[in-house]
Amino acid sequence: MILIVASQKGGAGKSTTATNLAAEFARLGRDVVLVDADAQRSAARWHADREAASIVPVIACVEKAGNIRTTLLDLDGRYEIVVVDVAGRDSAEMRTGMTAAHKLIVTVRPSQFDLDTLPHMQALIDQARDFNPDLEVRSLLTQVPTHAVASERTDAGEYLADYPELKPLQTVIYERKAYRDVIGEGLGVVEWNNPKAKAEIQELVAELMA
Fold first, then answer.
1. Which domain holds residue 187?
2. Sign of the dihedral through C-alpha 133, 172, 121, 94
3. How far is it, in rounded angstroms, from Cα 6 to Cα 70?
């Protein structure tokens, strides 16, 4: 399965989601490879830290730029799960990756700036489906405030309802320090000591594989 994590705006938790998905798939014993197709190399640096610390389970990592379609199809034949991190913008990597992917996760923060990118993302998805009509698309709210008075999650959910093809996942990723703490350790939150963050990623994987 090829699973791409994408967004149309930087800082939407794309690399954080991709690395944590890879960590959870590996913890579950799945044969997973992490593909870093973002020039910022956030996922590749996380993977390098994980290798340097000799953390198990081991996760494979590949870096690829430009047209990534052929690479993803090749990896899909060799690995059970291919998790792909592409740049937080319209890019060749995003466009070509979507023509090969089975699932696309669009990470979105509950802010108007992020939500305003959805029309363009929808247009890109429509174009990709000309080549890949079976592409499954889900949107994932990330960095949602945890305090009870925040209405951002509700407001964002109502906005997403206007884009039925960007079907929102039930799982929500909240703003938690744990997600920042694990990055430099080469870990996922499922390997950390924050049960709420761990539960979010486990619920996300379960929902994606349902």
1. 2-202
2. negative
3. 18
CATH of the domain at 24: 3.40.50.300
What is the three-state SS of 104-115? EEEEECCCHHHH
- At 77-131, the pLDDT tens digits run 999 999 999 987 789 999 999 999 999 999 998 878 878 888 888 889 999 999 9
Residue type, position 76, single letter: D
Could you write out the DSSP letters of every residue in 131-171?
H-TT-EEEEEE-SB--STT--HHHHHHHHHTT-TTSEEPS-
Task: Select, from the ranges 73-82, 124-133, 143-152, the one with the highest average predicted confidence (pLDDT).
Answer: 73-82
186 falls within a domain: yes
